[in-house]
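WARN retry 2 of 3 for item q-0093 after timeout on previous attempt; input resubmitted unchanged.
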Amino acid sequence: MTQALDDQEEIICKCFQVSEKTIRDTITTGDLSSIESVTQTCKAGGGCHSCHILIQFYIDEYQASKKTIEQSFVKEKSPSLWGKLFRRNKSTA
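OK item q-0093 returned
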């Protein structure tokens, strides 16, 4: 097993024995954005709450990567014909 796989198998929620991989997969699969939704789905964070900071970190990482992907697909709108004419007339006035 590689180091990266070993790290993802690390138990993050000690109370319910939930691994980093399970938490990350739960967030991604369910498109989750809150600790409460992660807890409802896989129980991580439902005990002593000491893992909440890591769960929130994983959520933030996922949301940031999602925004980056969405932004790469957003194209700048080109002005319509009327917009071009209006802008041209506006600048010559």
